[in-house]
Amino acid sequence: MSTVASETPLAPPAPGILGGIANILAEWGGSAIDAVSTVGDLTLFSFKTLAWLFTRAPKPGTLLPNFYQVGVLSLPVIALTGTFIGMVLAVQSYFTFRDLKLETRLGAVINMTLVRELGPVLAATMLAGRDEPVVGVVRGFVAAQAGPEPRASFPSGDRPTCPSDEGLS
Question: Where are the domains of the chain?
């Protein structure tokens, strides 16, 4: 993003009260120009993203299986983890709610906490943890299909050794 105010050198401070007021106005003007420039950059980015989205849409045969794999098949893991976190939250919050005579509100508070605050974070974390092994298996399969890895060749033909390798050969 370009910043117009930081590209132009600041004038030396003018003496007196009017000079101080002029410097303050110049700083405000620079901030306003930076804000307008940032909004313009964000607008251009948004338009380019939308244009790309509609001109290079993925094929439905590619998109829908990924939605199913990532979304539907992750639901049991997310539900199970959310259930256990909710139970722990209930056990730890009960005594405080009992002291305040608000035991009947515990369920509503846990529901709001899990859905609003923890839900998105936990879902993203569990989803990332669930799909990473799949990506690793696919990469391993692709590497196995490519054939054996090339071995390093050394001019003398000897393999370099490490002190911990001495008993292995």
Answer: 4-55, 60-146
